[in-house]
């Protein structure tokens, strides 16, 4: 059974998915971001870079966005276009946008510019595919342009029709707003990855959703009610607590922020991040197998492969990943290791690709970047604000203090002064920096 734990702080909102007592997923939304993935803008082509088949698009934000343009697309500077954010800004790299707009529903993804009906790779049963294809085409009056999500399995025509109507209504309203003016503007703001995740994944398998009473209360109830009225019974509202501390999430997170990660066998892995790549080293540690050396090493590597996959997904590591497994002589064992690693990573979809062993005997993995990694959050100002808010909760509700002292070491107060004022107002306390 699963439970969702939601922490709603001034600087960030987090969702922890707990599966049978183990942290399965963590989603962090930083509230000071304006340019979220899935946001849709009315943009204006600002500058065409013909040598790169790309252009920069003014979307009304601080920086223009980057749009890749195919060679057969005709586009002019000053032209009005509808674009959707597909990749966030990172350092000097601009946000990447696309002209292919998509809206995600509970059972379907609607892509108006597409003419295909595509199924999630996790839907394996051919009879179920045929059944769903018939229902989707019937519910959409023959229109395609849909991706059938895994959650659609077992659903009837009424559920699919409701999803389709909601998605098409969103798009129609978007187009109407887009055509009403020529100026760059945010037309559709995504509700955030946490609400999207709940909308797409909440099921009977989740026995409760725990959160602290506050501004999230009404939108969360509305969301859950829209999925299924009976699911409102799953909501558990807490008051005046540090919810991640009370429900053990902070302790679970330590495993995904440590450099060294120990395995049950006594072996361990070491994770290091550089500018160019992430390097993961596997060590036998105190593990002593009962069989021969080759079998012992193989067993350690298989155990490490599963944990490495979890770490990559939980930390949201992207880019180039190099894994130094313990050397094996058997070609069969090497192939089995690669197969297992690919299987573990495929649980999250097709973001990761295992490229195999290099000439130096290292395993090379690449993973597409979507959002900020866990490491990037822990290095951010929002992390500092969350630490301050956590301390305020403890001293206000456990120690009864109205004045909370905070060490200002390594904190840039000028950049977060507005948020600090919000924390003081939210908890009715005075912050003193020493």
From TrEMBL:
Entry keywords, A to Z: Coiled coil, Hydrolase, Magnesium, Metal-binding, RNA-binding
Coiled coil stretches, renumbered: 150-181
Domain of life per record: Bacteria
InterPro entries: NA-bd_OB-fold (IPR012340), RNA-bd_AU-1/RNase_E/G (IPR019307), RNase_E/G (IPR004659), S1_domain (IPR003029)
Co-factor requirement: Mg(2+)
GO MF annotation list: hydrolase activity; metal ion binding; RNA binding; RNA nuclease activity
Residue span(s) of domain S1 motif: 36-100
Protein name from the UniProt record: Ribonuclease G
Lineage summary: Bacteria, Bacillati, Bacillota, Clostridia, Peptostreptococcales
């Amino acid at each position: 059974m699963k439970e969702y734990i939601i922490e709603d702080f001034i600087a960030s909102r987090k969702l922890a998915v707990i599966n049978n007592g183990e942290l399965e997923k963590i989603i962090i939304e930083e509230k000071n971001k304006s340019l979220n993935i899935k946001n849709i803008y009315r943009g204006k082509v600002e500058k065409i870079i013909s040598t790169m088949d790309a252009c920069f698009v003014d979307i009304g934000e601080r920086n223009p966005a980057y749009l890749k343009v195919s060679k057969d697309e005709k586009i002019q500077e000053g032209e009005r276009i509808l674009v959707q954010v597909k990749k966030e800004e990172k350092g000097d790299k601009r946000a990447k946008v696309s002209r292919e707009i998509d809206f995600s529903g509970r059972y379907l993804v609607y892509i108006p510019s597409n003419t295909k009906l595509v199924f999630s790779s996790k839907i394996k049963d051919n009879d179920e595919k045929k059944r769903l294809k018939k229902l989707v085409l019937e519910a959409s009056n023959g229109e395609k342009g849909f991706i059938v999500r895994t959650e659609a399995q077992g659903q009837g025509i009424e559920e699919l029709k409701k999803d389709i109507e909601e998605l098409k209504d969103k798009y129609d309203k978007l187009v109407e707003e887009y055509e009403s003016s020529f100026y760059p503007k945010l037309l559709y703001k995504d509700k955030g990855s946490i609400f999207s995740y709940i909308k797409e994944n909440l099921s009977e398998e989740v026995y409760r959703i725990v959160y602290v009473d506050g501004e999230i209360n009404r939108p969360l109830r509305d969301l859950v009610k829209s999925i299924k009225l009976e699911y409102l019974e799953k909501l558990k509202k807490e008051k005046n607590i540090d919810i991640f501390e009370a429900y053990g999430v902070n302790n679970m997170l330590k495993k995904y922020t440590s450099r060294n990660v120990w395995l049950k066998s006594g072996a361990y892995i070491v994770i290091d991040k550089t500018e160019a790549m992430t390097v993961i080293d596997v060590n036998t540690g105190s593990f002593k197998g009962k069989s021969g050396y080759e079998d012992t090493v193989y067993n350690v590597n298989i155990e490490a492969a599963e944990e490495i996959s979890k770490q990559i997904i939980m930390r949201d590591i992207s880019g180039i990943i190099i894994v130094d497994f313990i050397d094996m002589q058997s070609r069969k064992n090497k192939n089995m290791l690669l197969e297992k690693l690919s299987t573990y990573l495929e649980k999250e979809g097709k973001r990761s690709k295992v490229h195999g062993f290099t000439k130096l005997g290292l395993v090379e993995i690449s993973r597409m970047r979507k959002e900020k990694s866990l490491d990037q959050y822990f290095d951010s100002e929002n992390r500092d604000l969350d630490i301050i808010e956590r301390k305020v909760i403890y001293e206000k509700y456990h120690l009864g203090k109205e004045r909370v002292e905070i060490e200002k070491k390594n904190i840039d107060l000028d950049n977060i002064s507005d948020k600090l004022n919000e924390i003081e107002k939210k908890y009715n306390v005075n912050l003193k920096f020493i």
